Amino acid sequence: MKNLAIVFLILTILSCNKEDNETEAPIIDAQNVSLLVAPIQTDVNFLSTEEEHYVVRNNQISLNKLLLFIGGSFSTPENYSIICDYSATIGLDVISLSYPNNIPAATLGSSSDQFVFDNYRDEICFGNPGR
Known about the structure:
This protein is an alpha+beta fold. It has two domains: 1-14 and 30-100, no CATH class; 103-131, no CATH class. It has four helices and four strands, in the order αβαββαβα. It has helices at residues 2-15, 39-42, 81-89, 116-126; strands at residues 32-37, 53-58, 66-70, 93-97. The radius of gyration is 16 Å and the shape is globular.
């Protein structure tokens, strides 16, 4: 439970606005093995220009748990490499998915449909078209 709290704390810190000229030092951990997987390698219906998925695994510690990470609007898996790397360091297998996500949920806030956010998440997570 303590590790989960640390993961959420790091995610919160990463979501804070930063100055454009600030850079973060990468987490280097010899235990973690990471790779980038082009979406077209998993399904030929993807465009070859889409951002790569980020996959990371700890080759010494394994909790046999998968963290499937889906970033926020306009993000790429690379934007979340620090949280993914840390999650692998504590023993989680991590896949940070790349997917077209250019409609922010906040724009739906003025909708009169009480299920607008449910439908939005249903479409993102399961591919069901909006109702």
